Amino acid sequence: MNLPYTILKIKDKEYRLKITAANAIELEKKLGKSLVDGMTDFDKVGTLTAYLSASLKAYENIDGDVTELYDDYINEGGSMSQLSDVLVEVLIVSGFLQRPQIDALRAQMELMTERLTKMQEK
Prior knowledge:
This protein is mainly alpha-helical.
């Protein structure tokens, strides 16, 4: 059975993550762009923590500054890239993305990375 949320474990606590429509609207206003377009800024801590904050509201009732939670995640060995992957899963279970879209994007990114690597080797 698929869960209606994604789980993120930090400091032996499991957090249930999901973005509701109301939280999505609030996040889009904060970002000034759509949830999908906001993913292009997943290399920014402010963007990651904004998505994380929106994700924690539905089940965990955590609202506001989540930078300490982010720091705990990183201090336990997590990375921005890993958190980005978790947040993509949140967008999928929340109905904003479909897995085939993400798989296609990842395949394109891998191909581009391979091409760039080959160009740099020349």
